[in-house]
Amino acid sequence: MKIRALIFILLISIGYHANAQTLSEPMETAVEICKNLSNAIRTSSTAALKAENNRLKTADIIEFNALRLESGEEINLNGHFLFDEVFIDSLIQNRKIIEFASIYAKKRSTRSSSGVNGRILLTTKGIKAGKSTVWKTVNRGYAEYAIIAEPEGLFTMTIRDKEGKTLYVETHNNKKGDTIRKAKMDLPTGKMTILFIEITNHGKKDASFAILSN
């Protein structure tokens, strides 16, 4: 009986650490900023929104352009929070700007970046309630990914290679979803590896999320 209990505790511990991964300092900083921005919207704190947006502006973050829709559907971002400094500046001045988020998202994808070295990639995506969508991207060496939901968003993330091998899968709240997901993996360094990132919205509402990569 004691052995079974020990095994059960060990399995819980393994599952917890698989989803409580600590990423590199730049990635953890970006995750924290996005988390705080989402919390500021949830609590309607203009002061917190301003403070975190200033951090977003000075962080070494650029647009995540190397992300292509593979299957499923992306929602129109109008009415949803956009993790973008220009959008947030406008939102602080006029909350109705959220109804035009898709315009800001399009502008973000084409404007020049404020990142110095481009260590962290960031973009905003959205999925319908109860649906899954897959995006294709590439990376090599030590790879990191994270998603941070807008208020009320609950997501899971699965990452596979082109052969279908699962490189990351949730073991914590994998049925209910969660507000933050983080993954890290070691890929071949000599060539780019094609990755497929599947995100599932477990919430009752359509929701947007920030997706980050190194």
In short:
The protein is of the alpha+beta class and 214 residues long. The protein has helices at residues 2-19, 25-43, 46-58, 85-93, 101-110, and strands at residues 61-63, 68-71, 120-127, 132-139, 142-149, 155-161, 166-168, 180-186, 193-201, 207-213. A five-stranded mixed β-sheet has the order 1-3-10-5-8, with helices on one face.
Content of β-strand: 25-35%
Structural class determined from secondary elements: alpha+beta
Give a quick account of the main beta sheet: strands, pairing sense, barrel closure: 5 strands, mixed
Shape: globular
Helix content: 25-40%
Largest beta sheet: what is the strand line-up?
1-3-10-5-8
Structural notes for this entry:
The chain has 214 residues and is α+β, with helices and mostly antiparallel strands. It is built from 5 helices and 10 strands; from the N terminus they run αααββααββββββββ. It has helices at 2-19, 25-43, 46-58, 85-93, 101-110; strands spanning 61-63, 68-71, 120-127, 132-139, 142-149, 155-161, 166-168, 180-186, 193-201, 207-213. A 5-stranded mixed beta sheet has the order 1-3-10-5-8, with helices on one face. A 5-stranded antiparallel beta sheet has the order 2-4-9-6-7, with no helix packed on it. β6 and β7 (166-168) form a beta hairpin. α2 (25-43) runs antiparallel to α3 (46-58) and α3 runs antiparallel to α4. The chain starts with a helix and ends with a strand. Mean pLDDT is 88; it is low at 1-19.
Which key phrases capture this entry?
single chain; 214 residues; alpha+beta; 5-stranded mixed beta sheet; 5-stranded antiparallel beta sheet; 5 helices; 10 strands; 30% strand; disordered N terminus
